[in-house]
Design a protein that fits this description.
The protein is of the alpha+beta class and 320 residues long. Helix content is 13%, strand content 33%. It folds into two domains: 186 residues, DNA ligase/mRNA capping enzyme (D-amino Acid Aminotransferase, Chain A, domain 1); 116 residues, Nucleic acid-binding proteins (OB fold (Dihydrolipoamide Acetyltransferase, E2P)).
Amino acid sequence: MNFNENMPSKIQPMLAKIGNLPKDYENWAYEFKWDGIRAIMYWNGKNIKIESRNLLDITFRYPELTDLGKSFGENVIVDGEIIAIDNAGKPNFSKLQQRMLISENKLTKSLLSIKIYYYLFDILFFNNKNIMNQQYETRRRTLEALKINHSFCRVPPNFKGKGNVIMSVARKHELEGVVCKKLNSVYLPGKRSDDWIKVKIIKSAEFIICGFKYGKTSKDRIGSLQLGAYNAGNKLIYVGAVGTGFDVVAHKLLLGKLEAEKTEVNPFEERFDKNVNFVKPRYVAQVEYRRWPEKKILQQASYKGLRLDKSPNEINLEEM
């Protein structure tokens, strides 16, 4: 894909910090947090390219979006989230994961039947001009003025006012949470900034898979995953195990990847029984949980999917 001299060819997404609703609510806007994956789209006037947050080209996985560029001007770079919808019309990460794992030229009718949407929330470059240094409020006006009309792309509204009202709406609709964005914030590629705050309703996080057990009755099934995260000293810390949430697809997928990464090295200080198969820390799992006292051991955890768009080096206890 060719870019003009003013157009960036690689942008790492700006990230939000986990926190609470800001007290100076009049200085913020609020967006719903969707259960999907981050995606930045580039349009050079002829072709589009969609990249994941770790800069992988994922365009081929979402053929519904190949004509999206026609909705823009001469050229554009937008930031957003790709989500999959279940039969109840709600975001469903497990369904999206089936698209995330597709190899090029392996799309089937079955996989295409999984309905996806690209939800846009920011615009970074427009008609030969880099606008990342403009304030968030100005960028949003530019994005909304495009009035995008596409079957698989939306610009969900943002809201102003008291954040607790927006949170109550998100809770009612069983959404993941809310992202608070300072109205005067500029876009900082690859940075995790205090100007963007994510407030979670559903307790979830990403952890590094460091080991697994086979099912009690079959080696064709996952019994549990042993999970970890890096501390400030770049040391892997054990945070517990997850033994529920695996469907047929997950059992096959995880075994296929983890069996190839087995190692004799225990990355933790804790000792484990002989049934644990340690693996090299290469894969990240998304997990929901009921409690995580003092960030020690997860309680009532459930597996939600592999995060192939995230690097294990990003999984840091200090940022959870």
